[in-house]
Amino acid sequence: MPEITYTQRGDYLIPDIILSDPPDAEPLNKYGRMRKSYLKDHKPILYNQLLLSEQLYPHLRDTGCTAMERIESMMTQLVKRDPPPSKESDQMGWVAHMNSLRYSAEEVVIAELVYE
Would you call 14 helix, strand, or coil by DSSP? Predict the structure, then answer.
């Protein structure tokens, strides 16, 4: 086990701890931030374990990437099953239909990946 060094700040000794994977290496997407908030508020023990073992941000990035991939694959399946109206003749109908499909896919993915 490596020796821990300390820096004195006033009357306190603060350990010199540096994360090997800085949290700002790659920004988190929407689903990674949602997962972080959920873990922090509802599963603080798991959140602290992941944070202290330096696995939190890789976990959040993986969750975010997986969520995006699942939403895209679900969107292609939903569009095949329930095709949208013609974009040229009914633009607003097309947008409304695609938004509805996206919200449906997003709801499933958030329930399965973010709030598990």
Answer: strand
CA dist 35 and 66 (Å) reads 12
* Residue % of the chain over a pLDDT of 70: 93
Tell me the pLDDT tens digit for each residue of 40-95.
999 999 999 998 888 999 999 999 999 999 999 999 999 999 999 999 999 999 99
Burial of 1 (0-12, 13-18, 19+ CB in 10 A): exposed
**Does the pLDDT at position 26 exceed 60?**
yes
Instruction: Quote the number of domains for the chain.
Output: 1
Q: Model-level pTM?
A: 0.78
Q: Is residue 62 part of a domain?
A: yes
Answer whether residue 21 is part of any domain.
Answer: no
Range of the domain at 43: 26-114
The dihedral over CA atoms of 113, 81, 93, 74, expressed in degrees to the nearest 10, equals: 20
Residue 52 inside a domain? The answer is yes
**What residue type is 32 in one-letter code?**
G
Whether 17 maps to a domain, the answer reads no
